[in-house]
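Fold this sequence, please.
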Amino acid sequence: LVAMFVFSMSMLVAASNFLLVYVFWEAVGACSYLLIGFWFQKPEAARAAKKAFLVNRVGDFGLAIGVFLLWLTYGTLDFHDTLSPDGTILPGILGQTRLADVSGYVGGAVGTAICLLLLLAACGKSAQLPLHVWLPDAMEGPTPASALIHAATMVTAGIYLIARSAPLYMACPGALVTVSIVGTTTALVAALIGTVQNDLKRVLAYSTISQLGYMFASLGTGTLLGFTAAIFHLLTHAFFKALLFLGAGSVMHSMGGVIDMRRFGGLRKLMPITATTFLIGSLALAGLGPW
């Protein structure tokens, strides 16, 4: 399952048209459902898997309609320019032909509708308000699966989708403002919710939602620096959040399955390596030091 999960995410990033993006987008969602519900005998895991599946269906519906509108508007779903049999160049949606002449991008109500539908899909996968409710419960899956879901695969798909569709958003300033508002609101609300949690994994889950909100806010600036910063933060976040989740798993297994932080204390002397790795991850999360 983990191998299929990673394969689907890799193919999503490597896809050269929106149809393949949609296919592997669904594959990532299916794998996440199976991984979250891995221990299906537990009622909590079964409920968490169902919640993740249903919430992501809302976003997937937005992506399906958005891809359909892209086909109707541009007559193609290819990212890049292609060469027809008679030698003429067929412009792709994100190809050099359209990038050289931005007037080839549709703005107005249709363009904004497409961008907002893609944003809905991104909010579902990247757990942005109001579609964030599935991510904290996704902790019911195995720790390696949680690290993958929260750090390097599923939640990054929404960021990638908006960054990949940047030219579409540049033609619709209103959609960019919406991206920024959603990201800023999510970053603040999720951080506040995380401060009152007692479950270590749920604290990390809400910190993930908050950090993804920062990435959305950065994308919403609509500038090259903003898009670059969002992708850079996405890459660095994958490393330190995976470190924190694996550290949390180490603590949980050492404590006999207990994950309530109110029952922790004095673990640094008993688990010095885990304490060091957790400190590094925490400093990176706070943006302190060389991390």
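The first strand starts at residue 82 and ends at 83. The two ends are 31 Å apart (CA to CA).
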